[in-house]
Every structure is written in C-alpha cells, then in structure tokens.
C-alpha cells in the first residue's frame, strides 16, 4: 500500500536547484544560495567555522541567547572575540556598533541576530550593515526569525552571510535551512586553512561539488519531505505576496502589544520601545510576584495548543512569549492568547480588563 509521505520519487537536482532559486527570490539576492539539510544551526555554525579562525577578530553582538552561542563558536575557532552585549529589552544601534568597531579597528568579522524570537527584539540590520561595510568587515546575520516577518535585503544591506530557517514566519519545516553567500565570503572561506572540508559543516564542499559544478549532481541524497515542504511554503508566500505576509506579522505584533497593555493586571511589554520589538513574537513581562512559567502553564491549561511559552533559562521567571508567526499570525490567535493570559491573571487575583484588551487588539487589526 503506497503512502504519499513515504513512497516519494527521488528529488532531482533540478528540483533542489529550483528551491534554491525560490529562496534567492524571497531574499532578493544575486548571491549564491545554499540550501542545507538540517535546522538553521547547521548553516550558522558552518558560516562561522568556514569564515573564522586564528587571526580573525570578531565583533559579536549579543541581544539574546543566539548571540552568546555565536561567541562560543568563534572562540572555539580560535578567533579573538569582542562581545557587544545589549540589554534584552532593547536593540543594538548602528552607533553602538560603530563605537565598538572604532575601539577595535582590527575587527574583520561581525555577527548579529536580526530578530531574536527568544527575547522579542529586532535589530536595525540595514543601518548596521552600512557601518560594517564602511569598516570593511565580513557581516554575518542570523535571519531565521526575521525572514518573511520583516524586510530582509542581504545584498542592499551588505550582508555577506545571511542564514534563514523556514520554521517561523515562513510557516515551513524546521529540518531544512539556507544561507546566501557573497563572493567576499567565499574568498574568505577559501583562504581559511581551518575551514571545514569533506564535512557536513563545509560550505566550500557545497560550492565545489554543487554550485560551481552547475547544480547537476547532488552531493548526497536530499531530505525529500523537508525540501518539498520548503518549496511549498515559498510558493505560498509568493502567492500571498511577501509584503502581505510581512504586514500580517507586523499587525499581529502590534495587536498583541496593544492588547497586553490594555489588559492590565501588571502585564507589560518586555521590549520597551515598539520600534525595537520583533514582528515574529511578542515578549511580555510578568507582573511582580507572578512566576512567568506558572502563569503560562495556567493560561495553556484549557488550550495546550496556544503559542504561549515562558522565557528560557533565567528569563523563565519573568518573560512570557506570544509566538504569533506563520499560521499563528492571525486575529484569532492573538485574541485567544490575550484571553488566556487574562483568565490566568484573574485566577492569580489580578484585576484585568478583557474587553479593553479585545477592543485594543481589534482596533489594530482593523487599521
């Protein structure tokens, strides 16, 4: 008995290349695009290990947990790393990056997360890209949480390595990811004697065996289900219109923020300024004396499918995250999350105004 998810014809090189071309179109890039067979941590680590090593001086911007991970990888590669930590309730500025580069003029590599879904902030990559380009450093951006939720233009912004994943605003699978690579980045990796070769982490292997070889013979058997799903979600974004998809995420974020502020009960946006808040997820600060994890558990008790989670690690006590991305970037999801949080706060003895929260969120959706 055949099964549509199991008995699949082999994915052809032409189909694989077509998905890469779809990614390039979404990013508006003329750079090479490599689709990698794994979650986005794979190309992120591949970029760092390919482009950095002893002799590299890196400026690593930390606006959330992934920035910390990048710093660990860079140090493991032998790079000299200067971290630029920014409070998680805000965003880094181009001026801060410029000051850090002036303080360390030998910097030749800059790593940054565009939007941190874990902390709910987003960084001005376009402005930072101008600063990095003027300095002459290679620029790597983690755009996993920002792609399809907000503008992302690696070529225009001077991004040499732009990594995306499909599992958030794109509404696709988590097991496949992609990176756009500039010519400058390829040259850096080719000149790096410690860049991975004959390895699953090797971007240079993909370049030699796939991209430069005409994309006619795949280096290994591709993950069929993930590739087909990635192609499908890219086609859906194109059909809906990328601008419309981004607008939907921006509206979901604004509606969630407005509704949370109107709800009361001591709940407040975690990211202080709306301009610094990511469209992909809204983070909220739990009221004083209320443990965020316990509040989320109470809110999800009636509906475990709600995209509500507590912050990770030390943030579990104070942060609540509403993941309004992909299929959840809808009025229904926003209203359901606000209602669940309101009910949970009321059970904690807090005074809330569910009607005001509903009205505030609705007003945003109605424009």
Query: Which overall shape is indicated by the principal axes computed on the Cα atoms?
Result: globular
The fold-level CATH name of the largest domain is Aspartate Aminotransferase, domain 2
Number of E-type strands: 13
Query: The biggest beta sheet, please?
Result: 7 strands, mixed
| Count of structural domains | 2
The CATH class label of the largest domain is Alpha Beta
Assembly status: single chain
Mean pLDDT: 96
Q: Indicate the percent of residues in helices.
A: 40-55%
Question: Please, how many helices?
Answer: 13
Radius of gyration, CA atoms, in whole angstroms:
21 Å
- Derived from helix and strand composition plus strand pairing, the structural class reads alpha/beta
Supply the CATH superfamily name of the largest domain.
Type I PLP-dependent aspartate aminotransferase-like (Major domain)
**What topology, given as strand order, has the largest sheet?**
1-9-8-7-4-2-3
Strand content: 5-15%
Distance between the termini: 51 Å
Would you kindly provide a brief summary of this structure?
With 367 residues, the protein is of the alpha/beta class. The protein is 43% helix and 15% strand.
Overall description:
It is a single chain. This protein is of the alpha/beta class and 367 residues long. The protein has two domains: 13-240, 3-Layer(aba) Sandwich (Aspartate Aminotransferase, domain 2), CATH 3.40.640; 242-366, Aspartate Aminotransferase, domain 1 (Alpha-Beta Complex). It is built from 13 helices and 13 strands. It has helices spanning 13-27, 41-51, 65-76, 94-103, 125-135, 154-157, 183-190, 203-211, 224-240, 242-263, 292-300, 331-347, 354-366, and strands at 32-36, 57-62, 80-85, 109-113, 115-116, 121-122, 138-142, 161-165, 177-181, 268-269, 282-285, 308-310, 319-322. The strands form three sheets. It has a seven-stranded mixed beta sheet with strand order 1-9-8-7-4-2-3, sandwiched between helices. The chain has a four-stranded antiparallel beta sheet with strand order 10-11-13-12, covered by helices on one side. Helix 3 (65-76) links the parallel strand 2 and strand 3. The longest helix has 22 residues, at 242-263.
């Amino acid at each position: 008995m055949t099964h549509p998810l199991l008995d699949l014809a082999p994915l052809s090189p032409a189909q694989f290349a077509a998905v890469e071309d779809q990614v390039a179109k979404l990013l508006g890039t003329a750079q090479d695009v490599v689709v990698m067979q794994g979650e986005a941590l794979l190309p992120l680590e591949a970029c760092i290990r390919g482009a950095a090593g002893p002799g590299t001086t890196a400026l690593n911007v930390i606006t959330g947990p992934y920035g910390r991970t990048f710093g660990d990888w860079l140090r493991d590669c032998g790079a000299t790393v200067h971290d630029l930590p920014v409070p998680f309730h805000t965003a880094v500025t181009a001026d801060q990056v410029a000051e850090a580069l002036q303080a360390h003029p030998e910097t030749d590599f800059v790593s940054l997360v565009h939007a941190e879904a874990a902390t709910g902030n987003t960084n001005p990559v376009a402005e930072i890209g101008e600063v990095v380009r003027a300095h002459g450093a290679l620029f790597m951006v983690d755009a996993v949480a920002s792609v399809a939720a907000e503008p992302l233009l690696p070529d225009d912004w001077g991004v040499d390595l732009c990594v995306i994943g499909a599992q958030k605003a794109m509404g696709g699978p988590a097991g496949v990811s992609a990176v756009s690579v500039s010519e400058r980045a390829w040259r850096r990796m080719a000149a790096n004697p410690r860049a991975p070769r004959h390895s699953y982490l090797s971007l240079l292997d993909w370049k030699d065996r796939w991209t430069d070889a005409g994309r006619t013979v795949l280096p290994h058997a591709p993950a069929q289900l993930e590739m087909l799903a990635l192609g499908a979600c890219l086609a859906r974004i194109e059909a809906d219109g990328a601008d419309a998809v981004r607008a939907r995420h921006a509206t979901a974020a604004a509606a969630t923020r407005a509704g949370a502020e109107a709800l009361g009960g001591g709940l407040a946006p975690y990211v202080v300024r709306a301009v610094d808040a990511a469209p992909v997820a809204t983070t909220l600060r739990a009221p004083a004396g209320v443990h965020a994890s316990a509040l989320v558990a109470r809110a999800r008790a009636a509906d475990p499918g709600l995209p509500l989670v507590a912050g990770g690690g030390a943030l579990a006590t104070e942060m609540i995250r509403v993941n309004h991305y992909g299929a959840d970037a809808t009025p229904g999801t926003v209203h359901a999350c606000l209602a669940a949080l309101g009910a949970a706060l009321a059970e904690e003895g807090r005074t809330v105004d569910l009607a005001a929260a509903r009205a505030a969120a609705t007003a945003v959706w109605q424009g």
